[in-house]
Every structure is written in C-alpha cells, then in structure tokens.
Amino acid sequence: MRRRHDERGITTAEYAVGTAAGAGLAGLLYQLLTGGLGERLLRTLFDHVLGLLGIG
Q: 32 near 38, Cβ under 8 Å?
C-alpha cells in the first residue's frame, strides 16, 4: 500500500514565489511606463488604435 505524502507546505512556498514574481513584474512595468520608453510606447499604441478606428 502506498503512503501519502503531506504536501501542504508546498502550496505556501508556491504562493510566496508567485507573489515575489508578481511584485517584481509590477516594479519592472512601473519603471518602464513611468520612463520615456513607456510614454512613447503608450502614445504609439494609442495612435495606432485611433488609426484603426478611423479617428486619428
């Protein structure tokens, strides 16, 4: 008969890694979007969408 392993602690570690990765990604996006590159990227995207809609 197989013994079941108690893996309750693994989910906590996975949540911790996921939270750290999410916070790192949020920090990276914040730096990109508040810098000059982010502003140009958003402006280009916005102009493209307006062009597709026939407004811009």
A: yes
Residue 10: per-residue pLDDT? 64
| 10-47 b/e (C-beta count within 10 Å ≥ 16 → b) | eeeeeeeeeeeeeeeeeeeeeeeeeeeeeeeeeeeeee
| Number of helices and strands in the chain (H, E) | 2, 0
Q: Rounded CA gap, 48 and 40, in Å?
A: 12
pTM recorded for the entire structure? 0.52
Q: Please, which pLDDT band fits residue 9 given cuts at 50, 70 and 90?
A: low
Question: What's the maximum distance between 2 C-alpha atoms anywhere in the chain?
Answer: 70
